[in-house]
Amino acid sequence: MYVDKQAEFSDAQAVTATAISTNVMDLISNSSGLNPLRDIGTGQDVYLVVSTQTAATDTSSDATLTVSLESDSTVDLATSATVHFTTGALAFAAFSPVGTVLIAVKLPMGEYERYLGVRYTVASGPLTAGAFDAFLTTDVQAFRAYARNYVV
To answer: What secondary structure letter does DSSP report for 112?
Structure first.
């Protein structure tokens, strides 16, 4: 899968408590303020991929993790963030193993504000360890092999 460093939100980002991604993307290339909202979910298919890079640990294995793609008018995603996609609360066993793909979803259509990032929300935790990768790509690995439905 092709990963462009300019489209990467998290690269082995340690997450033990609620946090936004290390990198937040600025969708406006200049400060003119023209077109403050844009729809990046149309045109060529672009996917958000989030995966566990380092195994997550928790003292009682009851932590949950919610991952959301958000945009806002401020870089810290703290003003009035628009949530474009969210996983809902994932159980510890569903996100803790290394290599687990938490999200591989096509960006939804809608009005995206200037700054785009990922928010990791940890509940019933905290996590004692864990790191995640998050990025946008046009080349998502979605192939699945199925059993043949015929006899040779």
So the answer is: B
